[in-house]
Amino acid sequence: MNHLKLFHGFGPDQYDLTLYVTGLPISGEKTVIRDLGDDGQLFFHFTEDGKLAAASGIGTTAISKEVRIAEMLIEKQKILDFMLFERPDVKLKSLLKDR
pLDDT tier at 25 (50, 70, 90 boundaries)? Predict the structure, then answer.
């Protein structure tokens, strides 16, 4: 397996922002951004063949759950439709199900 099992959240309390990273963003060929409004932004990094390689985000602690789910998607190493990751109305948890 060519991914790093890593989930970190860190940031200064004075700004109420936290940075989250899982996987290896440098191994992604395409980055998709999901805007979550006041909660922050998520960045999904995909390999050339459509597998999720990494996820990162900056925002409130509300995005930590999304990054944890992304970590599970990275572990599955499934080929995914990256367009779904742009849409906040698509729950990441639904992508965990085998189709």
Answer: confident
